[in-house]
Amino acid sequence: MLVQAARTGNLDAFEELVNRHERRIYTLARRITGNEQDAEDVTQEAFLSALEHLPGFREESSFGTWLSRIATHAALKIIRKRKGLPTESLDAATEDGALPHPEYIADWRESPERLVQRNETARLIDDALAKLDEGHRVVFLLRDVEGLSVKETADALNLSEANVKVRLLRARLQLREHLTRAFGDEHNRVTPHKH
Asked: 106 with 128, same domain?
């Protein structure tokens, strides 16, 4: 209802959409860019772009998913501009096919959902996310944090679905290793087998 009202020019309805999604979009942008000022810029740009393009929104996905895609593209643009790199498809990165071999594996004592509820844990997770390279981090954020499907993630990033799956697996393995160092039980540490 709010989306339809906003499409007809009802700015109060659009303001309510902003209120509902602003925190989530800011958090996504902050995690992608790693910078508060850039995240604020991305959030503002995402909502301005959404307002401008709202008449063309076809509702093939939810408004939140559509907004996440807009914010992701804006965040990636800022990262590339900051690095002085030309804009290129994430698919251009070569994939060597090798999976990372974790240095440590430990038994997890609590569910990830419980761990995320703690502030210290959220900070550690953000730190671990920041250590992922851009291509893996963005796929993880869209797929596992924002809840986009593999197809939606692939479409948002102009990747193949297979590439999304590979990057997601690598991101999860790398995050698990980083977080295992923080949360794993040292007494249950196991050296993984090399393949």
From this structure: yes
